[in-house]
Write a structure and sequence with these properties.
CATH architecture of the largest domain: 3-Layer(aba) Sandwich
Number of helices: 14
CATH superfamily of the largest domain: SGNH hydrolase
CATH topology of the largest domain: Rossmann fold
CATH class of the largest domain: Alpha Beta
Number of strands: 20
Radius of gyration: 25 Å
Low-confidence stretches: 381-395
Distance between the termini: 100 Å
Helix content: 25-40%
């Protein structure tokens, strides 16, 4: 009897070991790996790995298109503020993504610096970080901002939240939290199993995501922060600020396509703007939409045209940053700040039950094939351990563009657009020849050139091998 039991136990052990061994081998053939930061630090303004926020900015002087950006030791743009905050000084922190950080704009021309020069006895901290959503901003506040003793937050978190990507931010954060688990790191099968089981979690919970080396990212069809979560995050930040006696103003950044009336509404961000405004109203704090102000300036006579206001689809020029600073200053004055502290009057959290994203499917535009993004670089393939699947790697330009124009009609803005989005652009002071990188998956596309007078010419791109000549007055 004892010998029979021993054989059964040994058989069970052997069977179990064989099962898990086979499962491990099969899982290794799939090789699901955790997302990781794939780019080394350079002198450019790129997002490098961050232990709590997925990515952030490293200190130093960074290339920022045609200018530079100075990143301080806190990972924020501009000088480190004085601590403790001087008595009687107002301290505004501007939160948001690259539109607020100042993509392509020098340190002194950002809206933060212009606003600081506008308001007396006020320090304005630029806490905009390229690609940041409200999920990351919540963590930025806890990591850094609350310690700077702000008296007011200007929240511009908008574009990154409503953008479509392959994964939701909460999925990436859920994955990040378990990446240090020894068993998940060592066993590919357990990693695959954990990923599969997490897919059964309710939609409002973060799910574990992994990357199969050599494959393509899934379609960019998930909002980075879903609409109910966006409202909850905004409301949570406003409530956290209120507990610290800190006021809040919400602002919706402008969109070039709306200013130029290039597409009919609804836009994929309309529902986010509506809910942002509702969240502000619920908390009794001001909300301002910058698009009507930019539209008014665009239509004024003599019209400066949107090219003078935007570097591309969403990033303001120096003139645009000055306008944004003036919009914020006017909104604060209209709200009675600083006498009115703009602190939330809500006593309970906002109710998001029944909040649904009603954006039509035909209006939902995700990241285009071949388009880089902070999320995509987290899944870059390690060339030393695996080769990419060349069958799924789209060919890309550069497209050689020859811009011809009179010497005094610049500067010029040249953009390549596909599926309603700018996929390549250049701003040139003088006419000439230059390359624009375009993926074959983005074809057909259109290329548009605009001079300083607002004259626009457009041409279709169907073949990357053909040179393009654009002639402006």
């Amino acid at each position: 009897m004892g010998s029979s039991n021993t054989r059964r136990i040994l058989l069970s052990i052997v069977t179990t070991v064989a099962f898990f061994g086979a499962a491990e081998l099969i899982a290794r053939s799939i090789n699901p790996v955790f997302p990781r930061w794939g780019l080394p630090d350079t002198k450019s303004v790129i997002m490098t790995a961050h232990p709590t926020r997925l990515w952030g900015l490293s200190p130093g002087t960074r290339k920022n298109v045609e200018t530079t950006a100075t990143i301080n030791k806190l990972g924020l743009r501009g000088p480190v503020p004085t601590l403790p905050r001087p008595q009687g000084e107002e301290r505004i922190v501007i939160l948001g993504d690259s539109s607020f950080f100042g993509h392509g704009v020098s340190d002194t021309d950002t809206m933060a610096q212009v606003l600081e020069r506008t308001l007396p006895n006020t320090t304005v901290i630029n806490a905009g970080i390229p690609g940041y959503s409200t999920e990351q901003t919540k963590r930025l506040l806890d990591d850094t901002i609350w310690d700077l003793d702000p008296t007011l937050l200007v929240m511009g978190s908008f574009w990154s939240d409503n953008n479509f990507e392959s994964y939701r931010d909460k999925d990436l954060f859920a994955t990040r939290e378990i990446q240090t688990s020894a068993i998940l790191v060592q066993s590919v099968f357990i990693r695959w199993l954990a990923t599969s089981l997490s897919g059964l979690r309710p939609n409002d919970k973060g799910r574990i995501v992994t990357w199969v080396r050599g494959g393509e990212l899934p379609k960019a069809e998930h909002r980075r922060v879903e609409l109910p979560d966006y409202m909850t995050n905004l409301d949570g930040i406003i409530q956290s600020a209120a507990k610290r006696n800190v006021g809040v103003l919400l602002i919706t950044p402008p969109a070039k396509v709306e200013v130029e009336n290039l597409t009919d509404p609804p836009h994929q961000w309309d529902v986010y703007r509506t809910r942002q405004k509702e969240t502000a109203k619920y908390n009794g704090i001001p909300h301002v939409d910058a698009t009507p102000y930019f539209l008014s300036d665009h239509q004024a006579e003599p019209s400066p045209k949107a090219a003078a206001l935007f570097l591309d689809d969403m990033h303001p020029t120096v003139k645009g940053h000055t306008m944004m600073a003036n919009i914020i200053a006017t909104a604060l004055t209209d709200a009675g700040w600083p006498e009115q502290r703009l602190i939330s009057t809500a006593t309970t959290a906002i109710d998001v039950d029944g909040v649904v994203d009603t954006t039509p499917m035909s209006r939902r535009v995700g990241r285009l094939p071949g388009d880089q993004s902070p999320l995509k670089t987290m899944f870059m393939i390690d060339s030393e351990t695996a080769a990419p699947d060349r069958e799924h790697t789209p060919a890309s330009g550069p497209v050689r563009v020859e811009l011809q124009a009179t010497a005094d009609s610049g500067p010029f803005q040249v953009e390549v657009r596909s599926q309603g989005r700018t996929i390549a652009s250049v701003r040139a002071k003088v006419a000439g020849s230059f390359p624009l990188k375009v993926s074959t998956d983005a074809l057909p596309a259109t290329i548009t050139a605009t001079n300083a007078a607002g004259t626009v010419i457009t041409q279709e791109i169907t073949d990357l091998s053909l040179p393009i000549t654009l002639t402006l007055p």
